[in-house]
Design goal:
Blueprint (H helix, E strand, L loop, with lengths): L6 E5 L3 H4 L10 H4 L7 H19 L3 E5 L7 E5 L14 E5 L11 E4 L9 E3 L21 E5 L12 H9 L3 E5 L11 E4 L5 H4 L5 H9 L3 E3 L3 H6 L7 E2 L3 H13 L1 H14 L5 H21 L7 H33 L7 E4 L2 E5 L18
Parallel strand pairs: 1-2, 1-3, 3-4, 4-5, 5-6, 7-8, 7-9, 9-10, 10-11
Antiparallel strand pairs: 12-13
Helix pairs in contact: 3-10, 6-9
């Protein structure tokens, strides 16, 4: 009797609200409607469904999408949709995308956004490149006139808004922009600033997307020493490391004085980016399914019954405790960074500076930049 094909279910908790048409969409829709694929669930699960569906079918799987974890088969689910404790879901082989959240325990495998601190049962897979990415216009040559930040404006270091720093940039013919919209558009960008003022615990979970999106777009990068950035760095040409506004200005001066270095950084980034383009990441996903997930499922890794249910309930309880502890730590570390009463300080993480200076109170509603950034 033939063995039935394994069913792989992509779980979207907001399926009916946001994705009633997803089974009719093709992968090309990701580039046509990039704004639909922002946010954790959409970028990991909805995008993953469209990019992996055909490859999984070639591996012999039946692929579907649902709003709940099924009671059997293989389920791929984002951490935000994997925190309920319905016992019936314990019969599925559950793969949870941790994203920038607390560790996951109630799963069979977890997907981490970087490989710096993998726990038991975690596997590193890069986040997909920015949907709708539009590379830098090659006609700009080695011109350096526009420095851009692609990310959440509320996580920018305070010194990026200081009049002296902006005046120093202007004196060099540089305009700085923090992009709240159109953050896949690199056409007129000459340098990317990959910097974030945030909790060290949160930074340790972040992906290296700001760096490899810039590589894919053909733009040199100035980056702080976030764990994920250091992990993917294989050459000094991958990015110029900065830890202060003075470092940014010095890097700009060096690149302006050396067009050859600027061109070398572009060429190096484009070459390195092949490890993080869509086909490379698709291959890594399908390899993980072929080498680990499907064989484990076929060997009966999940054996439904009282023991499995007991394990699941206990793991979920421990997962919730870890979640509360993680949120508390991030909250405290952010308070230290962003409180208007916090004195001038240098926040250290992984032995290097990741945020600087006094953070003024956030602007009143309506006066600050809009943001839907990751």
């Amino acid at each position: 009797m033939p063995v039935p094909a394994p069913v792989v279910t992509f779980v979207l908790g907001h399926l009916e609200r946001d994705w009633p048409d997803i089974e009719r969409l093709t992968e090309s829709e990701i580039e046509r409607q990039p704004s639909r694929f922002q946010g954790g669930r959409n970028s990991w699960i909805a995008q993953g469904y469209l990019r992996l569906r055909e490859g999984l079918e070639r591996l012999g799987c039946r692929v579907r999408v649902a709003s709940r974890v099924p009671s059997a088969g293989i389920a791929l689910v984002h951490r935000d949709d994997a925190n309920d404790c319905r016992v019936e879901r314990s019969g599925a082989f559950v793969v949870v995308v941790r994203a920038d959240r607390a560790p996951v325990l109630a799963c069979d495998l977890a997907i981490a956004q970087n490989g710096t601190r993998l726990r038991r049962g975690e596997r590193f897979l890069p986040l997909w490149p920015q949907p709708g990415l539009r590379p830098r216009d090659a006609q700009r040559g080695h011109r350096i006139a526009r420095l851009t930040y692609h990310g959440r404006p509320d996580r920018l270091p305070a010194w990026l808004a200081e009049p002296r720093f902006l005046a120093d940039l202007s004196a060099r013919g540089i305009r700085f922009e923090s992009l709240a919209n159109g953050w896949g558009d690199y056409r007129s960008t000459d340098l990317v600033l990959a910097v974030r003022a945030d909790s060290p615990a949160m930074l340790a979970t972040k992906p290296a997307t700001k760096v490899y999106n810039a590589w894919l777009a053909g733009v040199p990068v100035l980056a702080t020493a976030e764990p994920a950035y250091l992990e993917v760095r294989g050459s000094p040409l991958d990015f110029m490391e900065i830890a202060s506004p003075e470092d940014v200005l010095a890097a700009i001066d060096r690149l302006k004085a050396s067009p050859g270095l600027y061109r070398s950084m572009i060429a190096n980034g484009l070459a390195h980016a092949r490890e993080f383009d869509i086909e490379a990441i698709r291959g890594r996903w399908l390899d993980l399914f072929d080498r680990e997930i499907l064989p484990m499922h076929a060997r009966g890794h999940v054996r439904p019954g009282p023991a499995r249910r007991a394990w699941y309930v206990g793991a979920m309880a421990a997962q919730k405790v870890l979640g509360r502890a993680f949120k508390a730590r991030v909250g405290f570390e952010r308070w230290r960074l962003f409180s208007p009463w916090t004195p001038l300080r240098l926040i250290e993480a992984t032995g290097r500076s990741l945020a600087w200076g006094w953070k003024p109170p956030l602007p009143e509603a309506g006066n600050g930049p809009e943001s839907t950034m990751r």
